[in-house]
Structure formats: C-alpha cells, structure tokens
Amino acid sequence: MIYFVTEFIPKYLPFLLSGAVVTLELTFCSMVLGIAIGVASAIAAIAGGKVARLIVRIYVNICRGVPLIVILLFVYFTLPEIDIRLPAFWAGVVGLSFNLGAYLSEVFRAAILAIDSGQMQAGLALGMKRTQIYRKIILPQAAVIALPTVGGYFISLLKDCALVSFISVEELLRHGNYIISNTFRSMDTYMLVGLIYYLMSLGAAHAIRWIEIKLRPAYLRV
C-alpha cells in the first residue's frame, strides 16, 4: 500500500488521466449523437408511418438483443469490408451511440407521450407546423421529463466506454492495460483505474442532479 501511494500513483496517474480524457470525450460525443438518434427514433415511432415505426421497432430490438461489444467489433472490423473505414475513436462513437440511441428512443417516446396531447392540437390551431410544435413546445418539456433517466444512461455510457479498448481506442482501460504489460502490477493498476472511473461517475451524478434541480419548476424545488 505504501508503494501504491508514494510511487505507483505519482508515476502512472498522469498517463491514466490522459486516457480518462479520451474516455470523457468519447462519452460526450456518443451521448450527443445517441440523443439525436433517440429523439429522431422516438418521433418516428410516434408520428411516423407504418414503415417508419417498423424500422424503429426492428432497430430497437436489434440493439436490445445484440451485445454492445459485438456492435463495436462489427463497426470497426466489418464496415471496412464495404469500404467504410472509420478511425478507432469514431468507430467507438458510432457503435456506442447506435446502441444508446435505441434505449433513449424508448425513453423519449415515453416522455413525449406523457405530455398532454392537447398541446399539439393547440399548436396546430394556432397555425404552427408539427416540426415547430415539437421543437418549441413538446421536446423542451419531454427533455425535462426524460432527464433523470437520460442521466442514468450517461453514467452507464461512461462505464461502457471501457469496451472500446477492444477496438484499440486509447482510453482509460487501455492505458491501464499498457501499464500492466510493463509492470505486471494488475492489482495496483485496476485499483487506480477503478478509482478514476468511480470519481468520474460520481462527478457526473452530481452534475446531472444539479441540472435536474435547475430545470425543475421553482414551485417544486426543495
């Protein structure tokens, strides 16, 4: 333990933190794209035609039934066979956001359906287009309703980013594996890697809670 505190942490923490930065970048990029996919899929499932609803249903079922690591490996190793080549980082973003979007589509669909349908009718009566109603009235309210669940998925995504080490993304876990291959100190390394993940998740949870409080109506704040 003395070696871990006095020598191991000072020597290897900066290297692990550089990997943690990549993990955070990967998380934020995947979250933004995943939200976009989720919102689009939710609207298609609610307001789209039969074909659109069928496509969304198939998409959601595929992502629920296929392990995330398989999706990541497919994007990174299989897409080049049809001349679609992505750098490891962006292959990770595509795989993570594709999987996340399926789950968020159900979250946003439920949030949109929780809003009084009369608001859509009122908007149409005022001469607004459906796209305007969704953008200015429905989606802002749905975002507040969905925020706690989306925040939970953000924290899960942060931890799921460890899987992209299998496709050569230089993130936190991969940096930890580099250290183990050079020092053979797996216990010390994984303890420090786990601590960094824990602190990032804890920080994300507090940030999400702060955002929830800020977006909550004043009369509901305690």
Please characterize this protein's 3D structure.
- This protein is an all-alpha fold.
- The chain has one domain (2-220): MetI-like fold.
- It has helices spanning 2-47, 50-65, 68-78, 88-113, 118-125, 130-160, 172-183, 186-215.
- Helix 1 (2-47) packs antiparallel against helix 7.
- The longest helix is centred in the first third of the chain and has 46 residues, at 2-47.
- The mean pLDDT is 92.
Task: Jot down its keywords.
222 residues; mainly alpha; MetI-like fold; MetI-like_sf; amino-acid transport; membrane; transmembrane transporter activity
Largest sheet: none
CATH domain class name: Mainly Alpha
Helix segment tally: 8
- Helices and strands, in order, run as HHHHHHHH
In CATH terms, the superfamily is MetI-like
Tell me the radius of gyration: 21 Å
Number of extended strands: 0
Strand residues, percent: under 5%
Q: Which structural category do the helix and sheet elements fall into?
A: mainly alpha
Uncertain runs are: none
Q: What is the CATH architecture annotation?
A: Orthogonal Bundle
Q: How would you sum up the global shape?
A: flat
Integer count of domains: 1
- CATH fold category name: MetI-like fold
Tell me, rounded to a whole number, the average pLDDT: 92
Helix content range:
over 70%
What is the terminal separation in angstroms? 43 Å
